Amino acid sequence: xxxxxxxxxxxxxxxxxxxxxxxxxxxxxxxxxxxxxxxxxxxxxxxxxxxxxxxxxxxxxxxxxxxxxxxxxxxxxxxxxxxxxxxxxxxxxxxxxxxxxxxxxxxxxxxxxxxxxxxxxxxxxxxxxxxxxxxxxxxxxxxxxxxxxxxxxxxxxxxxxxxxxxxxxxxxxxxxxxxxxxxxxxxxxxxxxxxxxxxxxxxxxxxxxxxxxxxxxxxxxxxxxxxxxxxxxxxxxxxxxxxxxxxxxxxxxxxxxxxxxxxxxxxxxxxxxxxxxxxxxxxxxxxxxxxxxxxxxxxxxxxxxxxxxxxxxxxxxxxxxxxxxxxxxxxxxxxxxxxxxxxxxxxxxxxxxxxxxxxxxxxxxxxxxxxxxxxxxxxxxxxxxxxxxxxxxxxxxxxxxxxxxxxxxxxxxxxxxxxxxxxxxxxxxxxxxxxxxxxxxxxxxxxxxxxxxxxxxxxxxxxxxxxxxxxxxxxxxxxxxxx
Length: 483
Known about the structure:
The chain has 483 residues and is α/β, with parallel strands linked by helices. 43% of the residues lie in helices and 12% in strands. The chain has three domains: 3-69, no CATH class; 80-296, Rossmann fold; 326-472, Tetratricopeptide repeat domain (Serine Threonine Protein Phosphatase 5, Tetratricopeptide repeat). The protein has helices at 3-18, 27-40, 45-53, 58-69, 80-97, 115-128, 146-154, 167-173, 202-205, 229-240, 343-346, 351-361, 365-378, 383-395, 399-412, 417-429, 433-448, 464-472; strands at 103-109, 136-143, 156-158, 174-176, 182-185, 193-197, 215-220, 243-251, 264-269, 272-277. The strands form two sheets. It has a seven-stranded mixed sheet with strand order 6-2-1-7-8-10-9, covered by helices on one side. A three-stranded antiparallel sheet has the order 3-5-4. α12 packs antiparallel against α13 (365-378) and α13 (365-378) packs antiparallel against α14 (383-395). It starts with a helix and ends in an 11-residue tail after the last helix.
C-alpha cells in the first residue's frame, strides 16, 4: 500500500476511534505524530497501519498513539487571568462555603504532566495558610497519556514549565535540582494530589469510575477542542453532572462557548468566563448572577500572555473584515511615526481594547472581531486596538496578519512593551529566533523603564517587573517536559 493511502486510512481510523475532529484539517500535524510513533517502532506507515489493525498488537499501540496525538503544552499557572479568577473569587468562595466540613474535591481533567493540579494545590496552600492542615484536600489529575502521568507523579519540572514563575516563587514552592535547571514540587503540595489514567469519553459510555462525582471544582481546559462541537457539548453536560450543586467548571478560552447546559450558569470574573452549577431553591448567588452580557463583563484583570488556542476557535463570518492599515499604507511601509509618540497619548485609557479583550476571553471571537473592527474604524491610530487585532488574528491561525497588526501597533507607538512581547511570542512560535529575541529584548528594556509595581499599559495586572521577567525568559531554549 502506498504511504499516502496508508495515511488516509490512518487518519480515518484516528478520527473514527478518538472522535478528534481536530485533525480533519491538520494533515501535516497528524502525519508528524503518526510518523513519530512509526519511527519509534522502526516501521513505515503501511506497516504501522497493519500493526494498529492487528487484534493482538493493536489495542496496546492504540493507547500509545492516543497519548501521542493528545499531548498538549502545560506550564504552571497557565493563563494568568484564569488563575486570578480562581485565587481571588472561586477558591475563597469555596473555602467559605466548605468551612464547616473543611473538605474540597477538585478534578483537573487532561492534566498532562501535572502543572495544573499542582498549581491549584499551591494556591490552596496560600489561601488557607496556617489552617491548611485542618482541611482534607483531594485533587485528582487525569489524562490519557501514561508517560505524562508518570512525569506528573515524579513532580520534576524544567525551566520551560516554570517560565511564568519568578525566582522567589520557584524557591518558595519547589526544590532546586543539582543542575540548577530542574525543579521538584515541594512535598507539602503533593500529599493531596493523585494522578490516574482516564479517557474522558468514558463519561459518555458509562464506564467512568463512580467516585468521579461531587466535585467542588473541575478544570477541563484545552481538551474539548479535540472533539466535534456536539460531542464537546455532551462532555460538558457530563462534567456538570459530576459537580456539587454549587460547584464550578473552568474551560479553556477557545472552549468557553461550547455549552448551553441549563445546569450551568456563566460567570465572568477577572476578565475570564467560568461556569457554576445553578443553585436550586436558594437565595441569589452574588457571583453566579454575573452573566456574560456586556453590562456584566468586568475589565480584563490580566493580559493573555499567549494568543488563545486556535484549535476549536470559531472563524469570523465572511463579512467580518478588520479595517486596512491607516491611511492606506502597507504593513511594511516606513514613515515618520505619529507625533507625539507617547504612551500617555496613544494609550490614554485602553477602554476599547479592554472591551475587545473581555469579549475574546469568553470565547466569543466573532463578537470580539466585529467589536475590534468597529473600534478601529472609529480610532484607526489606536495602538492597543491593533495589538488586540493581532491577538485575534493569531487565535485564528493567521500568523502573517497577526504580525502585521502587531507591527502596526508598534509603528503607532514604538514604546508599547506588550506589543513587542506578543510579537516576540508569535515569532518564537515560527522559530524566527533572531527576530523573536530582538522583540523580547525590546519588551524587557521598556518594561524595566516602567514602575516595577504598576500595571503595564495593555497588560492588565502584569507589572513592569513581571513583564521584564517574562521577556527575559529564553522562550526558545526549551520545550515540553513530556518524555
